[in-house]
Amino acid sequence: MNTVKAYCPFCQQPIELPESDVGQAVNCPSCQMKFTPKPVTGHGPDIDRVMAKYQRPHLSEQESIHNFARYFTVAAIGCGVIGLLFLISAFIESMTMNSWAAFAIIGGSFISVSIWLILVAQVIHIRANTLK
Prior knowledge:
The chain is mainly alpha-helical. It has three helices and four strands. 59% of the residues lie in helices and 11% in strands.
């Protein structure tokens, strides 16, 4: 029986499959995700070199937690920017009209959410640094 080489799209592991499995859903033996394999055509060493270049590195648990904390940091920056825009709007409105209080309250709320997100991100980073 002829075999073909395919790569799991989730974990990038090379998989040897019987030709009959190409085009049918299979489970990856490494990550257990279900996918429909497509055969890799070409010459062996060149394909392996190209696939190694584009293969995603496997992150350690500590690196994964740091990446998760970065989402909180980005969200905190976004909330802080929105809060500052509302506070600037409140300042401009205070010079022209009497409805500036709503802008100030909303701006302050976004900035306080930003501070809490930064604190959560720091706690997550500290937790990741305590892993051995």
